[in-house]
Amino acid sequence: MNEQPLFDAVGGHDTFARLVERFYEQVATDPLLRPMYPEDLTDSADHMTWFLEQYWGGPTTYSQRRGHPALRMRHAPFRVDSQARDHWLAHMRVALDELALAPEHDAALWEHLERTANFLRNTADPAAPGTVHVAQLGGSVEAQS
User: Fold this and answer.
1) Which long-range contacts (CB under 8 A, 24 or more apart) does 38-46 make?
2) Has residue 139 got a pLDDT over 70?
3) All residues at 6 or more sequence positions from 18 whose CB lies less than 8 Å from its CB, including other chains
4) Contacts by residues 50-54 (CB-CB < 8 Å, ≥ 24 positions apart)
5) pTM
């Protein structure tokens, strides 16, 4: 079976560049996410475009220029909690919706973006009021106070 890579099926570089451009337009004005990025968003946008293109069967520019993606390591310096994830996903959802892709392509991209955003969470969310975290064998359990 010779299925066309999603990269080609959705329109190639132009589609991914539009997705990332629209995403970063929103990040530029997001008070939570903006401080996580350098002043000039150009390199960040290029890196994301290359990564998405390569992941979806396009050119291997990302690996050629940046090596292994190592996404968790690259995001480790930043506080990525549920709130940051939700902001990131909200902006990505707007950008993806504006592409108006075929439903199966939209669903495949969105599932990957959600999975990646969840994978990159590296900070626990604050405990709910009245919740106490108790250390137990290197982990934690929640107990109501």
Assistant:
1) 45/20, 45/21
2) no
3) 95, 98, 99
4) 52/16, 52/19, 52/20, 53/7, 53/12, 53/13, 53/16
5) 0.81
Note the pLDDT tens digit of each residue in 66-86.
888 888 777 777 788 899 999
* Residue pair 16/85 in contact by the 8 Å Cβ criterion: no
CB 113 within 8 A of CB 92: yes
Give pLDDT tens digits for 6-55: 999 999 999 999 999 999 999 999 999 999 999 999 999 999 999 999 99
CA atoms within 13 A on the CB side of 74: 12
In this predicted structure, the answer to whether residue 111 has a pLDDT above a threshold of 60 is yes
Report the C-alpha gap between 47 and 68 in whole angstroms. 12
Helices (H) and strands (E) in the chain, counts: 7, 2
Q: Is the Cβ–Cβ distance between 62 and 47 less than 8 Å?
A: yes
